[in-house]
Amino acid sequence: MPEVLAERYRRVRQLTDSLSRPLATEDMVVQSMPSASPTKWHLAHTTWFFETFVLDRGLAGYEVFNPAFGFLFNSYYNAVGPQHARPQRGVLSRPTVEEVRGYRQHVDEAMERLLTAEVSAELGRVIELGINHEQQHQELLLTDIKHAFASNPLRPAYRPGEATGDGVATAPDWIEHDAGVCRIGHEIEAFAFDNETPGHRVFLEPFALADRLVTCGEYLAFVEDGGYRQADLWLSAGWDVVQQSEWQAPLYWERGDGDWKLMTLAGMRPLSPSEPVCHVSLYEADAYARWAGARLPTEFEWEAAAAGLATRGNFVESGRYHPSVAQVSREKTPSQLFGDVWEWTGSPYRPYPGYEPPAGALGEYNGKFMSNQFVLRGGSCATSEAHIRATYRNFFPPDARWQFSGIRLARDLAGARS
Amino acid sequence: MPEVLAERYRRVRQLTDSLSRPLATEDMVVQSMPSASPTKWHLAHTTWFFETFVLDRGLAGYEVFNPAFGFLFNSYYNAVGPQHARPQRGVLSRPTVEEVRGYRQHVDEAMERLLTAEVSAELGRVIELGINHEQQHQELLLTDIKHAFASNPLRPAYRPGEATGDGVATAPDWIEHDAGVCRIGHEIEAFAFDNETPGHRVFLEPFALADRLVTCGEYLAFVEDGGYRQADLWLSAGWDVVQQSEWQAPLYWERGDGDWKLMTLAGMRPLSPSEPVCHVSLYEADAYARWAGARLPTEFEWEAAAAGLATRGNFVESGRYHPSVAQVSREKTPSQLFGDVWEWTGSPYRPYPGYEPPAGALGEYNGKFMSNQFVLRGGSCATSEAHIRATYRNFFPPDARWQFSGIRLARDLAGARS
Amino acid sequence: MPEVLAERYRRVRQLTDSLSRPLATEDMVVQSMPSASPTKWHLAHTTWFFETFVLDRGLAGYEVFNPAFGFLFNSYYNAVGPQHARPQRGVLSRPTVEEVRGYRQHVDEAMERLLTAEVSAELGRVIELGINHEQQHQELLLTDIKHAFASNPLRPAYRPGEATGDGVATAPDWIEHDAGVCRIGHEIEAFAFDNETPGHRVFLEPFALADRLVTCGEYLAFVEDGGYRQADLWLSAGWDVVQQSEWQAPLYWERGDGDWKLMTLAGMRPLSPSEPVCHVSLYEADAYARWAGARLPTEFEWEAAAAGLATRGNFVESGRYHPSVAQVSREKTPSQLFGDVWEWTGSPYRPYPGYEPPAGALGEYNGKFMSNQFVLRGGSCATSEAHIRATYRNFFPPDARWQFSGIRLARDLAGARS
Amino acid sequence: MPEVLAERYRRVRQLTDSLSRPLATEDMVVQSMPSASPTKWHLAHTTWFFETFVLDRGLAGYEVFNPAFGFLFNSYYNAVGPQHARPQRGVLSRPTVEEVRGYRQHVDEAMERLLTAEVSAELGRVIELGINHEQQHQELLLTDIKHAFASNPLRPAYRPGEATGDGVATAPDWIEHDAGVCRIGHEIEAFAFDNETPGHRVFLEPFALADRLVTCGEYLAFVEDGGYRQADLWLSAGWDVVQQSEWQAPLYWERGDGDWKLMTLAGMRPLSPSEPVCHVSLYEADAYARWAGARLPTEFEWEAAAAGLATRGNFVESGRYHPSVAQVSREKTPSQLFGDVWEWTGSPYRPYPGYEPPAGALGEYNGKFMSNQFVLRGGSCATSEAHIRATYRNFFPPDARWQFSGIRLARDLAGARS
Which of A362, A338, A301 is nearest to A132 (CA)? Predict the structure, then answer.
């Protein structure tokens, strides 16, 4: 196993580096909002994670690269120690990008030493966690730099552009599910986050799930119908945000002279009606669903529908960093369930029955965030293919929009309840 | 039915009046925080509810008392029209208390006229809703004036004091429940809020529920053990509040010279260890449960445990307006499940499968608040006995503390999951 | 002297009472913004002033009415002790208005006992200060209740209405002043505030002062010319306020269907073009002056122009509580220099050379506010006639608008500078 | 003259470049608070100034480097157009440092072309203004990067360290000035800012000015005497800031284990008692003066004392970027009046009698800031020697501390007033 693990470690670390390569040094420093982080910080924090939770505990004689980094690059692990204030990450010009690359190299070399030997099962699990942790930060690296670039009036591009896919999306179909008890959560040997466990039973009333994602074209009809001006379509907390933040469309939509444009990682592009709508908040997803006479699926409905399907799709490996045109489903299975856009569910993020966070600092990884957030499922165009699975629970506050987050509709099947 | 309804209408209206009688005119004007309202506003808003949703639609020739009141006393019904800003309710010295009493009389007289005749089933349901609505505001009237009095360094008393109950609470027992599908929600003819419907099935893994409430004495041990200074006991969002608001104990606890005192509606009193702890937020309830090696019940577990039990307890009718000493349970049923204190559950407030809010403005009553809140169950010492039932879902944001909100523990039953 | 002082004490106390008489109990409780105070608080604070600084020190055997009032009704005297937070004054329903009246009576009776005997010169000066202090709060009582009433959609009236004066204001004339050294400040025996001393010399370059106040009609031309939309007319800090607060006209101006209306202490009234403009901030006064090709006078220019003139005018004693129609000046002296509206000067509020605040808590009366404020001169329609004089320095922050504050223009006389 | 002007232009531009050379690319991007700017922004904004006010108007055929820069690098000239929000300057990773250097080169080359020919007197004055403008930004570049480095837990150094000067400061002496009229303001041919004009007369009552600056040792005695905990020493607005911002010492002072350290542009250093105290706000300067039984000089007293003295001192040219040890005065003239630290005066920043800002956008340079600021005099260790003069008026809000701002005391001479 170590060899395989070592290989996976290397690959993940290399992907992080290669994702940062198109950026200028200046790009890696900026923090465009409190919940985003500079690229440089992502590079260092993922490294700190291995240093703190693996090397410092598991490699005899390991010397910490710079003790001050423990304060600078600890994200939120109170059990490890105090942290540099999150909204102040963009104030740190030092360590420089080059010094951070030196830090990465220092840790990578130590990890190589550690991975030549047999590692304990427990340490192996922590390394596995570190790999998955870095994959999560790869996604944040992309969404954070997209936010920074969109905050710059020059609207820089992260990668060369590409023609928008065209294809017209056909009307969505509903895939029906009967009522019944189903099993939810991770129950096999492979790696999963603690929040996916334990496996347990949930009763689902009959429901139907749309076979494809909501498109920009459909969402535009909502916008043009005055969706952002009708209080009765919105959750009360969402309506407050709409008014205070003056939302009029998804994040990164800009109305030019008549036409809508979209900020992408390839720069500004005309809005394509057949693309899945993206960068909406839970509030917007919920309001759209109400307007459309439907609702969001629960995370359990989503998981039941995804069970047994292959995790294929448009992931970070495609290098497109943008959702693909909404596809027509074949064979009565939902299309684009994995990749493209994270799908908001109507489920608040809460522990499963019997949930136990790990002991120690790593117990802070997931458990303490189980309030004030909603669950998203399925991964996005910025997610690693190896990172996602049907039981995977992502979570963000209901007003967050800077992730690749989209909408799949569900509805109740009436008459079938008892 | 009209007669019965008329009688119930009168009784509820009279209770509101009698709850306001101990207050000085000045007391009825103040608003001590944005989420509280002046007594005067409660008196008027409940009246506006009947005027707007019953008389204006159901009584031929009814003349609105004062058209400006529609703006002043509409709480949050966007479909009815714009509203005076909530945090500015305490700025309104006019209409005076006497004018508001005149408004109440005007509406009561019209309601009497309306209730002499047969009312349609639909109108009857709205009147029923108005009665229940007023009962909810009676509870708010008491909790809001308690907050106002506690904000005044003079710490005035709403009612004459009374010796604290003594009795020592014995160790709690756990009442075990097997796994299985159970029915949740309101499914009978009697009145219930829309958010309690439709009835549906939920699967519960095996769990145990404490047979009594957590006491002040138990909670004090948590406080003295440094519970408010240990990050690892708290949800992340809760820990932020603890630090920003410098929480060190439940709301209304004050540390004097060595001893803890409690602000009550009878003024300041020594803390009684055998009373149920009260005025805690969801965050505190959750942190306490974690410290105690337990967790909060879900709202479904709570409802399953309450099903079939009589709704007896210490309600507003007792005139005590304070929870009674925690009682030892007999016969393996949970004590004080109804009345005394609302019990925080670990369930975010979300719609039941198949939930449909009513059409029109009354659809704003419950549905639009289904995010960023947690469910509380069971009623409190400020709730009307006739108002509560096993399926009743109250909800407040996780940092709210000014309601009579307390804690009942639950825990998973291991080994019995599959 | 004691007799005269006693008589003046009584008269001032009675005026405060009579100013509060038209109010409902509810009106006396509300605080419509942090910088305003409830009527009840003014009634109590002025009483606390005499209790703390006179009776507690000067009357043997005096018993404090209620020790808790020292915390509640201390405004900002840190040397006396801590204070109830200013923005929370509107939360205090107790003591009730009746209890506050009891407090006033208690202190008045003690003052009567004290004033039957000879009082020391020093104590006499403090009583004098207390009288002037209460006159200042009488003015605040009126401006604060005006703000509260204007914040209420019902727009209640404090006193019965009265037809607006008509008379058309003729074009203003400029009264010229030569360059030279002049004496500034209070230098005679009678009472004055410490901030008016010591007398000293100031050099004035030649200037001209308008012989009358700026009218609503003139100010309306500024509004209609887009004055609130042209950045170049405004001080930078003022422009920030205009944009953030969305100012479009003076406080209390409301645009109805075409016509402008004004909130007054007699309720809503049509705007009268010949009245002096009122309820403008320093920023607005300064922007108007720039638009009009003039500037505001310095406080020294104002004082030089006022020296030797009789302090006659429209004061609180007129019972109008509103500025009178702008009068044409006769005999080349400025009209309405005293009364009607406080006149903003371009002078920041700073100490005179050699200024020494009194020792002890009363040193906090004026000295510590000598930053971030501008000086206003001349008194208003809410000022007592006996309270004002040519050397009197009032001061408010440059964005304050709720006082009766208006504009008199000045300009430089060119060519005469050296 | 053009030749001289060209030479001065080149020298100033080169100094800006050389000041930015010790910085890493990353350092030039960060903005550590809303009132500071990134180095990169200073480099571009000073360039934009010449492009907009000189080249665009004065050089035929000049092509703007990048039209978008007009939005990005306009600081506050509303007459030129809208601006990128000031607090968001640190979000701009693009243009990169290299692109900004290209921008500078583009403009420098065009300026060379323009300066080979004769320029009109008016254009010459604007170039002169641009040179002085860039000198002001050189100072901000240093103070802003100092703030950024001090915000970084790594406390980086901008330049290599240097031993602290030692020499013990002797007791200050008072230099007395008689009462009288004196001339204030700029009245000769050479360049000066509009706010220094017109020359005019001011009457000064007799005063004395300290012959040297207040030292860190003296200020430490104030700190240790509880100066930051005594409300009666502070202006009320200053006391609010002390409490809200929890000030306990000047900016950049840090208490280690027992000893005080200082953040400097050479990194952390032990506090030297004989250095002038620096990085204090007006509020602290004022409180210190009160504690010391003195006061701050007015800007007119300062100018009267400085009249005729040579502008020699520790300026940016010394390359020390830190105030020198407080020097004993010889020959009854104040030492270190120029350079080292800006000296807070007790004078709010207001226009001189007869002041007229220039027409057009350049009228926004100084005039619109004439409220809510206090005047500082004399330049600092970050000021160019050629930039300063006795009539120079710098200005900052009373709570600003990140400039090199220090204290010189003054006092009234009693008995001599009339």
Answer: A362
A6: its two tokens: 């070592």
Instruction: Characterize D58-79 residue by residue with b for buried, 16 or more Cβ atoms within 10 angstroms of its Cβ, and e for exposed.
Output: bbeebeebbebbbebbbbebbe
CB atoms within 10 A of CB A92: 26
Find chains touching chain D: ≥3 CB pairs under 8 Å: A, C
Chains that touch A (3 or more CB pairs under 8 A): B, D
Report residue D158: phi and psi, to 5°.
Answer: -85, -35
The per-type count for chain C, helices as H runs and strands as E runs, is 10, 12
- The number of angstroms, rounded, from the C-alpha of D156 to the middle of its chain's C-alpha atoms is 23
Q: How far is Cα B313 from Cα A297, in angstroms, rounded to an integer? A: 39
Q: Is B25 on the interface with C (CB under 8 A)?
A: yes
CB neighbour list of residue B253: distance below 8 Å, 6 or more residues apart: B260, B261, B262, B271, B279
Task: Name the region of C61 (left: φ>0; alpha: ψ -120 to 50; beta: rest).
Answer: left
From residue D280, alpha-carbon distances to C373, D284, D341 in Å are: 21, 6, 10
Question: From CA D182, how far away is CA C203, in angstroms rounded?
Answer: 9
pLDDT tens-digit series, residues A402-411:
999 999 999 9
Alpha helices in C281-404 (DSSP H): 282-291, 299-306
Q: Per the structure block, which two tokens stand in for D184?
A: 């204030």
Question: pLDDT tens digits, residue range B265-283?
Answer: 999 999 999 999 999 999 9
Q: Determine the residue type at C130.
A: G
CA distances from C169 to B83, C214, C250, C292 (A): 41, 10, 20, 17
Q: Which residues of C touch D205 (CB under 8 A)?
A: 200-201, 353-354
Closest CA to D107 of D41, D37, D74, D59: D59
Residue A235, φ and ψ in degrees, nearest 5:
-60, 145
Three-class DSSP category at B172 = coil
Mutation target to probe the A interface, by most A beta carbons within 10 A, among B232, B234, B244 is B232
Beta strand B342-348 with B405-406: parallel, antiparallel or unpaired? parallel
DSSP structure string for B323-384? PPPPPPP-TTS-TT-SBSSEEEEEEE--PPTT--PPSSGGGGTTGGG-SS-EEEES--TTS-
Q: Token pair for residue B191?
A: 């009145």
Spatial strand order in the sheet of D253-255: D253-255, D260-264, D267-270
Residues composing chain D: 418
Q: A89 to each of A78, C183, D23, how far by Cα in Å? A: 17, 57, 19
Nearest alpha carbon to residue B235 among B412, B394, B397, B404: B397
Smallest CA–CA separation between B157 and chain A, in Å? 35
Total number of residues shown for chain B: 418
Q: What is the per-residue pLDDT across C321-342, written as a single tens digit (0 to 9) for each?
A: 999 997 776 778 899 999 999 9
The distance of Cα D401 from the centroid of its chain, to the nearest Å, equals 11
Q: In the structure encoding, which two tokens stand for residue A400, read together?
A: 């967050």
Cα separation, B225 vs B213, whole angstroms: 20
Contacts of B257 (CB under 8 A, 6+ apart): none
- Hey, are the CB atoms on D152 and A68 less than 8 Å from each other? no
Beta bridge partners of D264: D267
Residue C62 in 3-state DSSP? coil
* The total number of residues written for chain C in this structure: 418
DSSP string, A223-249: HHTTGGG-GGGS-HHHHHHHHHHT--S
DSSP string over B82-151: ----GGGGGG---S-HHHHHHHHHHHHHHHHHHHHS---HHHHHHHHHHHHHHHHHHHHHHHHHHHHHHT
Reference D414, options C356, C187, C186; nearest CA is: C356
Model pTM greater than 0.80?
Answer: yes
ipTM exceeds 0.90: yes
List chain C residues with pLDDT less than 70.
1-3, 163-169, 329, 415-418
